[in-house]
């Protein structure tokens, strides 16, 4: 089983799929799923954009990619996604239309993940629930925790909600071990900011890998303070001032014979898709 991992796509919904398609063609290695660490940019209605997204969208229409390409039918996009035949499972970030996502979550009360786009290829997983991805040979067990933490008692929907804390409390009582934790925010143990609930999960539940985004920091790999989990800061899938993607923005997680390994996709590969050509690739 191979899974491509990205973070902070900010409306560039097609870009992870295109990078995976190119990776498969160049390496001959099949990818089974995409996992995404939040800030999808899931804004179906432009009037609901938050201030930061409005600011960026004035200079970069890519910020509105969900609205433009994934809320109304585009035959070319559908054909591409159908041929690729792959789903992307995301956690919520802080830059999403949470009212829109809340309604979809309520409409799918019995599903741990729910589709959010017109093609049925982009999914959001509920925070704190046990999840699994399956192929013929392997099963990947993971948990997603979306949104961001807050130390000021704010309750806006970009921050973790009480019903999600309730699910996380139940997770803490399980004796299960998991392959992967996917979050948007980081834990708050080192910096004094982040999400306290992530720290609590990492201290009480065994994960082999933790992938997160959000912070704007470069790619980083280190052993968590729990001494067990490999903590990976995924570089945001954003183009720099030269129109290039940064190191660590695409990671391949492989599970084979029960063993997990990661590949940091080389910049020589990701540089083939730039801000100026990725839509036509």
Automatic annotation (TrEMBL):
<protein>
    <submittedName>
        <fullName>Serine/threonine protein phosphatase</fullName>
    </submittedName>
</protein>
<dbReference type="InterPro" id="IPR004843">
    <property type="entry name" value="Calcineurin-like_PHP"/>
</dbReference>
<dbReference type="GO" id="GO:0016787">
    <property type="term" value="F:hydrolase activity"/>
</dbReference>
<feature type="domain" description="Calcineurin-like phosphoesterase">
    <location>
        <begin position="1"/>
        <end position="216"/>
    </location>
</feature>
<dbReference type="InterPro" id="IPR029052">
    <property type="entry name" value="Metallo-depent_PP-like"/>
</dbReference>
<dbReference type="Pfam" id="PF00149">
    <property type="entry name" value="Metallophos"/>
</dbReference>
